Amino acid sequence: MIDKVDVAVLGAGLAGSTLAKMLADMGWSVALIDRQHFPRHKVCGEFLSPESLQSLEACGLLQLVESLGPRTITEAYLIESGGSSVSIPLPGRAIGISRYCLDAALHEAAAKSGALVYTASTVTGVRAHHAHHAQHQHANQAQPAQPAHSAQHQHANHANHANQAQPAHAAHCHGYTIEVRRQGHNFELEARTVIAAWGAGRRVPVTTPGCISGSDLGGQPAMRVRAANRSAEAEPSVNRRHPAAAGTAHVGVKTHFTGIGMGPSVELYFVPGGYVGLAPVEDGIVNAAALLPRELVRGTDSSVAGIIAAAARMNPKLQQRLAAAVPVPGSQAAVAPVDLQRGPAAWDAIPQVGDATVMIPPLCGDGMSMALRSAALCAPLANSYLRGEIGLARWEETYTAALQREFSRPLRWGRLLQTALGVSWMPRVVMGLAQLSPALAAGLIQATRLKPER
Predict the structure, then answer these.
(1) CA 275 to CA 293: how far, in whole Å?
(2) How many CA atoms lie within 13 A of 439 on its CB side?
């Protein structure tokens, strides 16, 4: 038989894993699905801002993250290609933690709360049920009016759904079938609602099915955590593994280094049209993440090491900084294209969270905060929908308005800052102004941040 859950979250990154845990803590049965093997390295600044830490605390995850041994970060150190620099205090304590450690820990937390975590599992399709299919479902297995009191007993509670009263708005809960492929086997899940957390470039069409024929799991259990060899993958190439679309402006790469001593600061080295950021993370490792114009790396070695080296040749201070750096095998990742102008999209047939919703320019360092905030905004609305208190239209309307209210200001300022610093002479001007007026620099940073959660 097909497994049935209340919520399927497609994508197990920061936003998806956090959302899955929040909904499981509310008592709903949750499936968290991602096509990648974990733990894994991904392109990310690996910088959790003060606003991110507030969000983690609000959803009960800060203690877990602190247990991973992150590095404290209290200032940003900016260095332009001509050598001038400025240090800007952050508005509060931030931390550096690798996504390799963070994502795996969040999966464990979601699983501990009762979520079923399927990694190395590719969603190949999402089928919205017709009303007649939903009515057939309700006749054979009633939907719960409210979540189970204990997420650890969700499967037992599923067996009792038929004896529970229907919510007032149950007729609108038509549900979905999610088609999944894992380790050469196909299986299906049914969910009352589906939420996309699949990142900026991943899309799975949501279609209206004809007749639905179910297939069982073939004995495949939900995968709590899928281990991966940290150094098993070959180093990615932007051109070979992540081809960019025509007209693309930027590529993103990352790698870990040892051999670089860093204090409690994140260092941003500007090159024409882009930058390389260094951030200390756990175990004495330094994360190097770069956002660079495609033209800057065209014709160079397309490996991550080659791209970082090409950028370093354009900023002597960065080249000196990396002179003794030793790359950590297997930590390289690349992505292209990086679309910095994509507008917010709260809904695309199904609700979206994280980078699927919006992406702030990475230079602002608040991308993970926005991912966490989107999950925090979506979770209570999903809860109300599952309780039968609101319909999909109200969910979409309320969620879209909330994202616009929370994100429009930092997005506007973040894109303005990204564009300005992309002009070759502008970093020197900005640093000069920051030296003359630290308050102006602090205000500019604050303009790109989310306001505290209410």
Answers:
(1) 9
(2) 0
The set of residues, in sequence order, having a beta carbon less than 8 Å from that of 447 and lying 6+ positions away, is 409, 410, 413
State mean pLDDT over 205-211. Answer: 62
What pLDDT does 59 receive?
92
Q: In this structure, are residues 222 and 36 in contact, taking their beta carbons and an 8 Å threshold?
A: no
Concatenated DSSP letters of 150-179: -GGGHHHHHHTGGGSPPPTTGGG---EEEE
Q: How far apart are CA 411 and CA 146, in angstroms?
A: 36
Residues 321-340: pLDDT tens digits?
A: 999 999 999 999 999 887 76
Rounded distance between C-alpha atoms, residue 180 and residue 192, angstroms? 16
Of the pLDDT bands very low, low, confident and very high (cuts 50, 70, 90), residue 160 is very low
Confidence of residue 86 (pLDDT cuts 50, 70, 90): confident
In whole angstroms, how far apart are CA 52 and each of 80, 368, 429? 27, 6, 29
C-alpha separations of 308 from 43, 235, 266, 288, 329 in Å: 13, 13, 17, 8, 15
Partners of 267 in the beta sheet? 77, 278
What burial class does residue 34 get, using C-beta atoms within 10 Å of its C-beta: 0-12 exposed, 13-18 middle, 19+ buried? buried
Determine the pLDDT at residue 445.
64
Domains of the chain (ranges; CATH) run 2-38+106-232+340-408 (3.50.50.60), 47-97+234-339+416-447 (3.50.50.60)
- Return d(Cα 191, Cα 307) in angstroms, integer: 43
What is the per-residue pLDDT for 94?
96
Residue 156's pLDDT band (cuts 50, 70, 90): very low
In angstroms, rounded to a whole number, what is the distance separating the alpha carbons of residues 179 and 124? 5
Around Cβ 203, how many Cβ atoms within 10 Å?
A: 12
The encoded tokens of residue 116 equal 């079923």
